[in-house]
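For the sake of transparency, this paper describes our internal protein records without simplification. The tokens are whole numbers drawn from a learned vocabulary of local backbone shapes. One such record is reproduced below, unchanged from the form in which we store it.

. . .
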Amino acid sequence: MADEKKKISLGGIDGAAEEKGSLVKTIWQFVKFLVVSGLVTIIQLVLANVLPLIFDKVTATIPAFLQGIFNPSLIFDPSTDAGAAQIAKYVIGGVVTWGYLLPFFLSNLIANIYGFYQNKKTTFKSDAPWYNFAIYIVLMIALILFSTWFQGWLVGVIAKAPWEWLNGLARTIAGLAAGFVQMIVLFPMEKFVLLREKKPEGEAAEEAAE
């Protein structure tokens, strides 16, 4: 009964927002998107801190086409104790290992797959075709590669800070910053391209007739 009341309440707010026009509706969708993004961030942060326990021992190096993006000299600072430790752990022969890349990549991808389906169901109420998910995955891989580089770079910057407590939060802060960048990109992409809201039955029938 409680779940039913929540659904009715949410549906009522959706309807009220829609009646007030497209701007209010978009604002309400953005609020819902932020809530989902918060859940995505929590999932991502948990995985980003847990997955290294699994992948830190992976010593296989990343392929050549990724080496230009994940250049050790750009993402690690050897002048700091933390940077030197990361180089010792994650760099072999001057090349970054999958042990470094996979936790960032997988935590991001898994969390955002959840976000895609949650936004499709509750935020935009979309009936987007299955192939939009494939497009989303390609987009996410590009975003993840950028944000993984960005996270690594930011961790290196934070490592220079003189406060030990801040150094310990480096991965968390970097994950939050990367999530913010992704949110800015994903909301317009999902609303206007990938997860366009399903049209009312009458309007959809008119288009089909044409």
